[in-house]
Amino acid sequence: MIRINLDETYAPIGVAENLSFITFDSPQRNGAADVLLKIEIKHLEDQLLPNVYNLSFGPIDEDGEINDSIRCHHENVNKVFSTIILFSLTFLQTHRHATIGLDGSDDGRAYLYHRMFITNREYLCQFFISLGVDWYVRLLRNGTVEADTSGNPFFKPKPEPFDYNRSTRDLYRYYMSHLIPGA
Amino acid sequence: MKKSIQNKIEQIKQLARTQHLAGKIVSAEVSGNEDSLLKAIRNKEEASVFMAELDAVINVSKGK
After folding, report:
1. ipTM of predicted complex
2. Are A41 and A54 in contact (CB under 8 A)?
3. Contact B31 A89 (CB under 8 A)
4. Interval A149-182: pLDDT, tens
5. Which of A115, A176, B3, B20 could lock A131 by a disulfide, CB 3.0 to 4.6 Å apart?
6. Listed residue (B30, B1, B36, B57) closest to A101, CA to CA
7. How far apart are CA A119 and CA A2, in angstroms?
8. CA distances from A55 to A146, A147, A175 (A)
């Protein structure tokens, strides 16, 4: 269970001028060397989705890119996620109309995000409006579902206020945060 | 907002400014990724619908 506490975060090592990324060292268990983690906040698409950003994070490889295949055994997972949330808050304070999303297309990560939103509901509500996004497909009157030109189901993303009663067996596909007024 | 947290935020903002001036972090580029939301939005019309729904949900949540 992840517990967010913004008073307990890792010190940043590098920060991009426009706050598009930050790096910090995460101590590892069993005496292993610290791992340099990177948090990136990327503008999805200027024309189509103004003010929507994707947040990703993970260890970085020699090229400075996030590489999810590197296994980590963080000494303090709470502190890692608290650092991620603090950076999100910093970014949103300087981009007040922005909404940051976490991609939940991977089941493991979606489970982690879902639990984090629920466990830290009251704490995060001080700073963020939390949202979930599901993919829907339209049922046609003839009993089939709307399909694209290749015959694949025509899914459409639909956001809603985060439903804290939803169990982890019913994960969202995408998790989003927007700054509350005054935060 | 707790003062200690806002102080940390200001330190990050300050670091972003000073590292840039010192030439330590010059690249603001981020690596590409395969975002599932972006993949699910196929055209401008769908994007407009999604953005309208997102704005509506945010506004409703702000009013609570």
Report:
1. 0.87
2. yes
3. no
4. 888 888 999 999 999 999 989 999 999 999 998 8
5. A176
6. B36
7. 7
8. 31, 30, 10
